[in-house]
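This part of the workshop introduces the protein records we will be handling. Getting from the letters to the tokens is the skill we practise here. An example says more than a description, so a record of this kind follows:
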Amino acid sequence: MRLRSIALMSAAVGAMAAGLVAVAQPPAESRDPNKGGYKPAFAGQTRAPNLTTDTKFEIKEVAKGIVSPFGVEFLPNGKFLVTERLAGQFRIIDKDGKVSAPIKDGVPEVFARGQGGLLDVVLDPNFATNQTIYWSYSEPKADGTNNTAVAKGKLVDGATPKIENVQVIYHQRPALNSPLHFGSRLVFA
């Protein structure tokens, strides 16, 4: 079930690559807008449109045993690199659906509670030559607070995958005492 999000994402990427277009519909939201007396800055501000499409797609489970997948990257060799948010670890899924042992070696400690955990992952634009990955995660602090952080390291894919030369390159400031609102996505533009 949890990997269906990976399969759906693959289908969505395929549909976008094929140039298929969804049609905007009235909002799917059914609650009254702007609770608390807030006024929208522009019409439709608090309403995202419901999208419908005639695009045909197939859902195919590609692997089992992944816990709370959050980020997925497609590796040049056809494998998937997946973050398991609540487990605070990476997994590699091969073309046959075989899931690697958890990749924790080299991964900084993760605050994996509430909405926190190991979040997004992205490949360096020169990944084919440098094997560098970047990831975001919830970072615990000694005083009990936490923050969102971004790290980078070299992915070593083999019999026992690991991440080497890890460097934390961003820490959110100030740190907070909350298990909420860590969501992040990484992208190279």
Notes: Confidence is low (pLDDT under 50) at residues 1-20. The chain has two helices and nine strands. The chain has two domains: 4-52, 69-171.
